Amino acid sequence: MRADEVSGRWAHAHEEDTSDEMVFRPADAELPPSRGRVAFELRADGSFAETGLGPADVPEEATGSWTLEGATIRLSDGAAQGVPREMEVLRTDKERLVVRKPR
Amino acid sequence: MTPKRRQCAAMQEYERLLEEQPSFRANQQRAEDFTARAVTSGEAGRVARRLVTIPTVVHVVHDKPKENISDAQIRSQIAALNMDFRATNEDTAKVPDPWKGLVADAKIKFQLATKDPEGKRSNGIVRVQTDRTSFGAGDAVKRASAGGSDAWPSRAYLNLWVCTLGGGLLGYAQFPGGPRATDGVVVLNTAFGTEGTAAAPFDRGRTLTHEVGHWLNLRHIWGDTLDCSGGDRVPDTPNCKGPNMGKPTYPSVSCANGPHGDMFMNYMDYVDDAAMFMFTAGQVERMNACLAGPRKSFLAA
Ligand SMILES: [Zn+2]
User: Fold this and answer.
1) pLDDT, tens digit, for every residue of B255-288?
2) Measured on CA atoms in the order A76, A82, A86, A92, is the torsion positive or negative?
3) How far apart are CA B113 and CA B230, in angstroms?
4) Nearest to A34 among B170, B211, B242 (CB)
5) Distance between start and end Cα atoms, chain A
6) Are B168 and A57 inside 8 Å of each other by CB?
7) What are the CA-CA distances from residue A39 to residues A60, A82, B140, B169, B257 (Å)?
8) Mean pLDDT value of segment A58-84
9) What is the distance between the alpha carbons of residues B282 and B295, in angstroms, rounded to a whole number?
C-alpha cells in the first residue's frame, strides 16, 4: 500500500461501521449531524491533523506525525479521543477508507 | 465536515480558555472537590428535597428565515427538557428492568425568563439577525460583536444559543467554572425542540438535555477515554468503553460490564434522541452538588 492511497482528509462515518470494521469517508462528503464525529487528515509531508471528541462536545484538535508500514497506519499521540493510534487498512478507494476495528 | 481552518479556530478558542485563564482549570478542580464533599456530607441531598427553578433565556441567532425558529418550537424544547429532568418523559418505560430503579427525578425546572437583566418584562427569547451563514464551536455565537448575541448574566440565567452550526455539530456546552461571558449551551436549530424545523433523529429535544447535563457538571458515561480507563465519577452508571451511536440493541457489552452492558439509554451517551431516556440517581446527586456549589446562585432564585 502506498501513502498516497490513504492520505487525505477522512471523517468517521460511524453509521457505516460493522462489528469488525471502521469506515471513513472523505471529509468533504455530506455526512449527517452527529453528537460526535472524529476526523483526520494524513498529509504527504508525514504530518497529520485530527479532530477528536471533547468532554463537553467541543471538538478537540491535535496534530502530529504518521507513518505507513505495509497496510498499517501509525499516528503519534494526538487528541485524547481521536482516531485509533494504529489502524490496519482493509481497503481504500476514492470514496472510503476501511480499517479493522480495534479490539 | 467544515474546512479544517474553522475547526482550528475552535481549538484555539478552547486552548485560550485553558491556558490564558488558569482559573478555568482551577475552578473545575474546585468544583470536582466540592462535588465529592457535597455528595458524602449530604449537602447535595439537602438540595434534592426541593424543586429548583432555573430562569432560562434562548438566543435565536438567524440569517435565513427558517433559522428564526418559532416561539412554539422553543416552547416544545423547554417542555421536553422539563419532562426529561423530572423523569416524566413517557419513554422511561423502556428502561431495561435491571436499571428501572435507578431512574431519577432531578427536581430541576427550566422556565423561560419572565424578566430581562434590567427587570423589564420578557418572554425569555432574544432574536438576533446575523450575517453569518453558520457558527463553529468557537463561541462567536455568544458575542454580539462577532455576529452573535451576548449572554445574559450567567449567575442568574441559563443561556441557550440556537443557530446553524457547521461541521455536523449538534451542540456543545460549558462545564461550571468557566468564563461567565460564554457560560451556557449552544444547540443546532434543527436539533432544537420537537416540532418546526427539528429533524429526525434529533427531534425529541435530547441534544439540549445532554448539554444541560454537562452544564450541571455531568460527564459522558464512557468517561472520555476510548478504552476502559476513564470514568464519569458517578457510581451507578456502568463503566463502558466509548460512545454508543444510533439506536443500539440491549444488551451491548464492553469493559466486562455484562450481563447488562453499557447504559446507552442514558442522556449522557451519544445515541439518537429516541434511544436515550434516563438520568440515574448518581447523576442527579452530581447535579445537586453542582447546584449546592459552583451554581449555587440559582438556589436563591
Ligand atoms: Zn456531551
Assistant:
1) 999 999 999 999 999 999 999 999 999 999 999 9
2) negative
3) 37
4) B170
5) 23
6) no
7) 10, 8, 23, 13, 28
8) 97
9) 18
Grid cell of B281 as nine digits:
440517581
> What whole-number distance in Å separates Cα of residue B272 and Cα of residue B250?
14
> In the structure grid, which three cell numbers stand for residue B102, read together?
435507578
Say yes or no to pLDDT of B8 above 80: no
Can you tell me which residue has the cell 424545523? B197
Taking every pair of C-alpha atoms in chain A, what is the biggest distance, in angstroms? 37
Q: Among all residues of chain B, which has the CA nearest to that of A49?
A: B4
pLDDT at B1 over 60: no
Active site (annotated) includes residue B211: yes
- What pTM value is reported for the model? 0.94
C-alpha cell at B87: 423523569
Q: Does the distance separating the beta carbons of B190 and A57 come in below 8 Å?
A: no
Residues in chain B, total: 301
Residues 6+ apart with CB under 8 A from B26: none
Min Cα distance B261 → chain A (Å) is 16
Number of domains in chain A: 1
CATH number at residue A26: 2.40.128
ipTM: 0.96
Ligand 1 geometric centre to CA of B268 (Å):
6
Instruction: Name every chain B residue with its beta carbon within 8 A of the beta carbon of A9.
Output: 1, 4
Which residue, B209, B191, B189, B175, is CA-closest to A54? B175
> Which residues in chain A have their CB less than 8 angstroms from residue B175's CB?
55-56
CATH of B3-298, one of 3.30.565.10, 3.40.390.10, 1.10.10.10, 1.10.287.80: 3.40.390.10
State how far residue B9 is from chain A, nearest Cα, in angstroms: 10
Asked whether residue B199 carries a pLDDT value surpassing 50, the answer given is yes
What pLDDT, in 10s, does the model give residues B126-171? 999 999 999 999 999 999 999 999 999 999 999 999 999 999 999 9
Q: How far apart are CA A24 and CA A17, in angstroms?
A: 9
